[in-house]
Amino acid sequence: MKIIAPISKVEEAGVFARVGAEELFFGVVPNEWRERYGRFTTNRRGGNNLNTLAEVREVVSTVHREGKRVSVAVNGATHTAEQVAYMSELATELAALDVDAFIVGDIQLLSVIHNLKLPTRLHVSSIAACRNSATARLYYKLGANRIILPRHMSLREIGRLVRAVPELEFEVFVLNDGCPYEEGLCHTLHLPTELGGPICFESFETELERIDGKPLNLAEQRNIDTNERCYSHWRWSKFSRGFSTTTAGQPYGPCGLCAIPTLKEIGVEYIKIAGRDGNSLRKRRSLDMVREVVDLLATENNNEEIISFAKRMRGEPDLCQDGCMCYYPEVLSS
Amino acid sequence: MVDIAVSFTEFRNLDAAVCGQPLLDSIVPYVPDNIPLHISHIRLGNEFCERLLPTRRQIEKAAALADQYDVSFALVTPNLTDQGLKRLQHVMSAVPAASEIIVNDWGVADMLVQLYPALSLTAGRLLCKHLKEPRIAEPTVDPVVDWPVKSAHFRELLASFGINRVEVDLAPHTSMPTAKADGVKLTLHLHNGYTAKSHVCKIGSIKQPTARKFTPEHNCQRECLRYVTSVSRMIYPSRNDLGVFQRGNTWFYNYTERMNASIAEAIRNTVVDRTVVMLDWHEDHRTH
Q: Is the peptide bond before A254 cis (omega within 30 degrees of 0)?
């Protein structure tokens, strides 16, 4: 299985390529774009992008020397006509730098870049929210080589999709960066902290009412209160338990390490570590964790052993019990 | 005079609505500035969850009611998993040939255009993505926030599916455009817009065991049809905050008076030639 890992600095590229990433991905936001469009970036990340084509050239050269590949995230959910024109030019320049793939989130941009007939591969971002085989086939017709599946898909759903569209490669999340919503269908901004931050982090007071106007009965209220507490814990877990790590620097959830054997069995070849915004140590520890599981998979035939190993990696096996950190919680009950 | 499509998630609410007060009277409170209106469509279905896809029988009955009212019928479809695609294929034979299908999934559009070329497809608002941040309620001059139909590339994409109509919301921080989009007709949702949806469902997890809460392929009891949640900011409240509510897996914001005035003007200028009111899927809907 091939590991896809994030970078946000030139100096991360060589190290991560050497220690086990098969492909590195990053965003690039040229200063000219920033001046024109301000907070709207080429890839939804306000920071932690490369800023110049010279940096991209250096990363490509370093990673290719290691025999690995580079993909550039140009995965804004939507673009104006002017932005599409800009992105077409940027894609042409990036292709000339020998970038291996573009990660694209906007179907119109996918179509436009495909029509440029560049040698660069096209990977459909999880932002495109492709959840069914008809959509995957459409993206294939529009030039996609790979689909990065969105979060919140079960292993069964992934398996169906992979089997239904064998002409495509599939990539799935196995570590970091949860999102409680459908990322491609959230139209809010990650506001500055003083204005509320991302809407999914902000605290809201909620009042649930019955549509029929009747008051909530005691059993209902109890279920609702329990659900609310569980949701708060789930959301906190999905945000890496308050964006924390183990003492060894290993990130807490979201995590799909124990699902890697099943993912291999159902035909997924590419596994993604998210977290471009994390610091270098967090990214490195994430890569180490995934690499160790993949290496074990190459020598160990017993999936139970691999699952057990994955659960022990953080030294806190209890973490896995409630499934809230899991990308694929069904593994726990299988 | 503006065309209005009356939209229902549940057939039983459509059935009750046509049996009660005149349908037009139910709509008037949601139409800004007393603009004269004409019911052009009855719609059934939900944009946000495949578990709310109507049955064949419900579609047949809704289409018959539309026929009885001498208005067109439209089926609303959400973004789908492969299981949802199967269910949609199963119910499609109940959809009359001249119907409109609101598609919110590019794969569904591609499938329907191949299997049912006679149907009229409209791109729903899940396909017409743009920034809609309910925590920025004041209009800002920001040319980047725009409906994608302004892009010729997006219009070409729509044309490849034979789509010449798209559905949109008004973002809280923008004003209505004053010019039509070339070759594409606009349907605007009245009263509120959606801002974010999830795939896993908080409200649908109420009766799930802990291990099955907030997971895909959940077995909800359609709690979204029984509850609505009003939402208010705790730490960063502002006097400009919009009314926000959650219905099912989706967050909505209510339009303000300023936004409604802007909509009324766009209707008068025929920038928008059709509107939608979701009569059973907003925070005010009560069955009592």
A: yes
